[in-house]
Amino acid sequence: MRRRPRLSELPVLVAAVATAVLLAVMLYYPVASVLAGAVLVDGRPTLEPIRSIVTDSFYLRLFRFTAYQALLSTIASLALGLPGAYLLSRYEFPGRRTIRSLTLVPFVLPSIMVAVGFAAMFGTGGPLNRALAAFGLPPIELLFTLKIIVLAHAFYNAPLVVRVVAAAWETVDARTVETARSLGASPRRAFLDVVVPQLLPAALTSALLIFIFTFMSFPIVLALGGLQLATVEVWLYDRITSLRLDEAAALAVIEAAITLGLTYAYLRYETAQAASRSVARRTRKRLFGTLDLDRIAIGAYGIVVLVVFLGPIVSMLLASVTSVSGGITLEHYELLFARRETVVGTRPDLAIWNSLVFAVGTLALAVPMGVVLSMLTARDTLTARVVGTLAMVPFAVSGIVVGLGLLQTVVFGVDVFGYRVQVTGAVAIVAAHAVGAYPFVVRTVAPALASMDDRLVESARALGASRTRALVDVELPLVMPAVAAGAAFAFAISIGEFNSTIVLVEGGDAYTMPVAVERYLADRTLGPATAMGSVLLVVTSVSFVVIERVGAYGGIE
Amino acid sequence: MRRRTFVSVAGGSLAALSGCLGNGGENGNGNGGNGDSTDTRDATETEDGGTATPVEDPTITIATYDSFVDGEDPVGPWLKSEFEAEYDATVEFRTPSSGINQYIQRAQQGAEIDVDLYVGLNVDELIRIDEQLDSALFDSLDGEIDGSDRVRDELRFDPDGRAIPYDTGYISLVYDEREVTPKTFEDLTDSENAGELIVQNAQQSDPGVAFLLWTIHEFGADGYLDYWSDLQDNDVRVLGSWDDAYNAYLNEEASMVVSYSTDQVYYGDQPRHQVGFLNDQGYAQPEGMARFADAPNPDAARELMEFMLRPDVQGVIAQKNVQFPAVADADLDEEFDAVAHVPPEPVTFGYDELAGNLDGWIEAWARQIVG
């Protein structure tokens, strides 16, 4: 890894400072205000709350189980996602790019909605068991078991594998494969020795992210598994709702220490792996050709995808057009849109509008933040890794803790030089979404920056371009596919964000689509909730396709 | 909404603004502040050239739970329009997702509360408030609310008279009579009913905690964990919220679920919607309303509380909120009476029995379930 040019110029510096300030106000300060409870009791430093947790055998079991289910979930996500990455990167077929865009959809589906979809699809009397019965097979009891939690986690996270690994697969240099083949390597040998090492960083990136996500899993576990399968996050949520904030803080500190440690280890690994290279693309095979083993395997994979991905989504769509008596109806949608006139209650049009506005705001904030942080962290130095790790705090700290921290500080108001400073409503939500989304931009842009040929920037600089100019004219266009992917991620995160949004909405008018789904679920019938969920699904699917197509770069193409 | 009100007050006059700030910041018990806030409003509205009469149109802000205002034909919007038609006032709702915690934390952080009424308070929340806060979050309204003497005695759950019950639910089982016929607590641990019961997590669900307390009422603080151990051996499912549990039940994952005895108001007398009173009991869970000590409009809030206790209003609250009225003389539809079942023997714990015990009971239970 070579040295990168210094970031000394004004525009870059201003952007870096602005990013730091935003992070301090919307992330570090609020989170620190909660976590302080773990090490301060009545204003005096102490280790008592943390000590009481690590010496409690109940908590040791809880952490062990949480790690175990996260490991299983990670393996399942990889198993489900890697064939998809292979398919998307090595085969050409109609609708390939659209399917690519749609891999973001699971990120925006509210987890409670997914839980309902999974229960409907895989439940005792669900379509899966009915299909099995039609073939004379015994039913599978999945609900309330670890299996369904792992399956739901795979539903959420396999698309991440597909996206990240497919991007890496597309940049595998065709010449290296050809060289290996011309030296006598079998296709299998060439794959193992040449392709796999180039995919490994991407696969490990996604595996690590998924481990961290599923380690902190919460609504899925609660809704599909119940308290018997509780994770650390479930317990943490209870500590907060019962206002045992010291214990919650201690738990969150331990959880964050584990996940931040993993993040640091991963960053070490990632930067060590990154190498400068230019790429000759390999041509894609056509999917619809002569039937060979590959294509049969792909067909089998297609069936699994239909069951695991489309099943729950179709179940939700069906529920939205099914009346209480079981017939087909549009009454739920009518009810949804009749509500526009109501004075109290949650208006669907406002929820859709808010979601879109916040997502655009999130894009505008998170993408520049992410690019700036990528530049700061794309070097292989200790400082870069520490900054990089700190920048990943939103991954490592429980969303519930971030929400609580925001609530108790900037939302309730903070005294600054005698003035009470308060951030509420849309601004706070956009900032919170941006904080949650920028790590995804960093994680897609930083590896692209790190693996760029440094000579390009050096040449531009030698020819008299300023650092900013080199960034704008040389580096950014080259990593634009990664930026576009990061932008789509940011959009998806904003649309689907729930934990901090619901805290910040405070029962006001800034609710989003996922919040609306949750509110409609409080009613006894699934109708309006699934109708709203379906609207959410359609709005966001269309948005992604548009973002990736109109983004002029068409994703990583 | 709140911001708009604030800006219009601030724009009216500087004196009004300072009065407003003083009111929010210093006024501890609310009662002394009544005059101030009324003055502030008068000054503003006169300058706006608005109304002729001096005291007009206060906005009463109610904090409550989602389903009070949202869903199919909820009670909140009805209450708003009826009250506004009879009184010169505007009613607004807030539905903080963290419920009463929102206001406990606000009080702890010294942040403005700016809400008049909390509607949907139960006894466990009252206990949490008293454990967390030294200062009074709510006014004591003993004897101040006309009609509160008509509230049924067995529903009163606040010894200090802050929370006035406005309705009550009875926790019971809802079951599928084609599969099971649960009559007693022992039936639930019968191996014949293995895997057939879904309950809510008592850490975060009202019916969940009510069902747990019901078992403590039945087996005592020394015996309930043993009973739960038997339930666990019989493969009981502890799901998160009422939604989670009831959705699982609707998906036919089990043939019994903990819910409310008003289930048939939604579903009618269906085989899958039978109401089961274990040992002929049902656990009563009254809901109360309380006025914040710092309420910006204490008088209007009191009028709304009195309105909610009127016999005709009580009848509609019960039907739309699908609970039972808090007063004996409510005007109820006969139809509602026919499908909403009252347990032969309602049981419940009072404030004094729960204070100091509740947290420990739930904690021990949750640790046993997680295992």
TrEMBL record, chain A:
Q: Which InterPro entries match?
A: MetI-like, MetI-like_sf
| Keywords (A to Z) from UniProt | Cell inner membrane, Cell membrane, Membrane, Transmembrane, Transmembrane helix, Transport
Transmembrane segment boundaries: 12-31, 67-89, 101-122, 142-169, 218-236, 248-267, 298-330, 351-376, 382-407, 419-441, 478-505, 526-547
Q: Which organism is it from?
A: Natronomonas salsuginis
This chain belongs to the protein called: Iron ABC transporter permease
One GO cellular component, as annotated:
plasma membrane
Predominant location: membrane
Origin, by domain of life? Archaea
Biological processes per GO annotation: transmembrane transport
Q: Where in the cell is it found?
A: Cell inner membrane; Cell membrane
Q: Does the keyword Cell inner membrane apply?
A: yes
What Pfam family is a match, any one? BPD_transp_1
Where in the numbering of this chain does the ABC transmembrane type-1 domain appear?
Answer: 63-266, 352-547
Keyword Cell membrane recorded: yes
Question: To which protein family does this belong?
Answer: Belongs to the binding-protein-dependent transport system permease family.
Q: Which PANTHER family match?
A: INNER MEMBRANE ABC TRANSPORTER PERMEASE PROTEIN YDCV
Q: How does it sit in the membrane?
A: Multi-pass membrane protein
UniProtKB/TrEMBL annotation, chain B:
- Is Ubl conjugation a UniProt keyword of this protein? no
SUPFAM superfamilies annotated for this entry? Periplasmic binding protein-like II
Write down the Gene3D superfamilies for this protein, in alphabetical order. Periplasmic binding protein-like II
Q: What's a Gene Ontology MF term here?
A: thiamine binding
Q: Which spans does this entry mark as compositional bias, Gly residues?
A: 24-35
Tell whether Signal is among the UniProt keywords.
yes
One Pfam family this sequence matches: SBP_bac_8
Q: Where is this region: Disordered?
A: 24-57
Gene Ontology BP terms: thiamine transport
Q: Which PROSITE patterns match?
A: PROKAR_LIPOPROTEIN
UniProt KW keywords = Signal
Q: What name is this protein filed under? A: Thiamine ABC transporter substrate-binding protein
Show the taxonomic lineage: Archaea, Methanobacteriati, Methanobacteriota, Stenosarchaea group, Halobacteria
